[in-house]
Amino acid sequence: MTVHMKKILPLLFALIVLPLAACDRGGAHPSSTVDFAVDVENPREVVGFADYYFIGEVLREMETLPQGEGGALPYTRYQVQVVENIKGSLPQDEALDVLKAGGIGPQGEVLTYENDELLEVGKTYALAAAVQGAGSLLISGPNSSVVVEEAPGPQRYRKYHRIHEEEVPYNRERYEYAPQK
């Protein structure tokens, strides 16, 4: 094998085999596996990583951006109305733009991280959002958006407040939220 071929084979492996291995072919749609900074199966760690944790109703799906910052997944931009702030204080008097990692691919396929789902218009979620460098809100990964199914009442969001009270703090660089125009 020539030196030239020895250099090309690893590149071909990276370009062809690795993307195929990252897709969950047995599920309903392709998904990407990734190592997150926190245990995404532990909601207290997810909230500890987040800058904001709030209850929000998805009002509108705005657009799918072809690819997220530094990632292979597209981002989907939604308009969300904050129903109740739990961690941090986001405006409640206007709809916010929120980015969700994942979206609809070029062939119409749903692309998400493994065990994650896109948001649905009209549903209410407990959302854990991290502020990105440009000031946008990003919801990324499993358990960063959990459908709220509790019946209305004075204790409706109590379990989400408890998660925040018991959050596992995560030390990372934090950015300032800036409404997206």
In short:
The chain has 181 residues and is α+β, with helices and mostly antiparallel strands. 19% of the residues lie in helices and 30% in strands. A hairpin with an 8-residue loop joins β3 (75-87) and β4 (96-101).
Characterize the structure shown.
The chain is an alpha+beta fold. Helices cover 19% and strands 30% of the residues. The strands form 2 sheets. It has a 5-stranded mixed barrel. Strands 1-6-5 form a 3-stranded mixed beta sheet, with no helix packed on it. Strand 5 and strand 6 form a beta hairpin. It is globular and about 45 Å long. 30% of the residues are buried.
**Sequence stretches where pLDDT stays below 50 over 5 or more residues:** 1-29
* Global structural class: alpha+beta
Mean pLDDT: 79
Radius of gyration: 18 Å
Helix segment tally:
3
Helical residues, percent? 10-25%
Strand percent estimate: 25-35%
Oligomer designation: single chain
Assign an overall shape. globular
Strand tally, please?
A: 9
Note the main sheet. Answer: 5 strands, mixed, barrel
Order of helices and strands: HEHEEEEEEEEH
Placed side by side, the strands forming the largest sheet appear as 2-3-4-8-7
Task: Give the termini separation.
Answer: 55 Å
Give the key terms.
181 residues; alpha+beta; 5-stranded mixed beta barrel; 3-stranded mixed sheet; 3 helices; 19% helix; 30% strand; disordered N terminus
Topology:
Elements: H1 3-21, E1 31-32, H2 43-49, E2 52-65, E3 75-87, E4 96-101, E5 103-104, E6 110-113, E7 124-131, E8 137-139, E9 145-147, H3 158-165
